[in-house]
Amino acid sequence: MAALETLEARGFLQQCTNLDRVREILSSESVTFYVGFDPTADSLHAGSLVPIMAMAWLQRAGHRVVAIVGGGTARVGDPSGKNEMRKLLTDETIAQNTKALKEQLSRYLVLDGDKGVLVDNADWLMPLNYIEFLRTIGSLFSVNRMLSAEAYKQRLEKGLSFIEFNYQILQAYDFLELYRRYGCTLQVGGDDQWGNMLAGVDLIRRCEQAESHALTLPLMVTATGAKMGKTAKGAVWLSADKLSPFDFYQYWINADDRDVERFLKMYTFLPADEIARLAALQGAEIREAKKVLAWQATSLCHGEAAANEAQSGAAAMVSGRGTEELPTLVVDEPMGLLAVICGAGFAKSNGEARRLVRGGAVKLAGEKLTDERYTVEPSTLSDDSVLRIGKKRAVLLISG
Prior knowledge:
With 400 residues, this protein is α/β, with parallel strands linked by helices. The protein has three domains: 3-217, Rossmann fold; 244-319, Tyrosyl-Transfer RNA Synthetase; 328-399, Roll (Structural Genomics Hypothetical 15.5 Kd Protein In mrcA-pckA Intergenic Region, Chain A). Helices cover 45% and strands 14% of the residues. A six-stranded mixed beta sheet has the order 1-6-5-2-3-4, sandwiched between helices. Strands 9-15-14-11-12 form a five-stranded mixed beta sheet, sandwiched between helices. The protein has a two-stranded antiparallel ribbon with strand order 7-8. A hairpin with a 2-residue loop joins strand 7 and strand 8. Helix 15 packs antiparallel against helix 16 (304-319) and helix 17 (337-343) crosses helix 18 (350-358).
């Protein structure tokens, strides 16, 4: 199946500048395309998997990927989808986040300089001469047209800073720069970027008298209307340091039944006939489809070993089998209960852990713990020292 047909069949296609022309180009030649990720955090999240998977499918079809980590645009802040201005990050934080995101993207894509390349737009944005940039690039933009973009229209009532107003120009300039450096003629991104992407297509036409295209991906929401990759407890991070593989697995296996087929298409590389078989399962059997989804997604992000461990731990929790299949946490010195809960990845702060204890959600070896000052002593741990948070999360505590 050709590249665009694959994206269409698996639900990735939202808008395209000229669908027939893009279909023709992707079917007849190797196209260089790009997707950008601003390093506003030190990890991508489950919502980021939509563009990552689209990139992977295009690369598998023989097209060359340029992955941008926006060390330059992160200094400005994208107003798209935001109710207020993003907090401006320090240069040090941006540098740390950029390094982390580069490492993550390299897990999913071949970025060897031939089939794919990883770049930072700070390389060309930071050295820009402001006055020269205004004369040569800024003069080509219509303020009226920019203000008609949905991202800006939504912000005008609440306030749009001048620095954010520049974001569209910078993103458009990225596309122009990538066209000049790498022959990049296709930009792929979330549907909230449509206005910015069109600006880039127009800029290439004006400056280079050349053809380029934009293709957007859907902004994913679950069947319940929740934003993809977000839970009541926070983002579903791709970094194991921010969210354990076990909890990552649990996110997918607890997906709404109505989302399973769509998630299998978008978050796995399973063939269409296997997805159709799994999607046909009904009633209690759909749990098997969810297990496949959870294993595939966890394996993709954390590797097969982590996926197998998470699957075994989940099975042990559900069936009540022995603790040998649960994920483990080593306690090599006396640790406060709140620290243990955070160390197991069940809470991100002592305050959140404290609320779990006060809510009666914490058990150790079957006994409910209500004292938030409780200390876990390595010498008291045994084969049944399982720390449970509610019914679905558990970790075996072992002495170091």
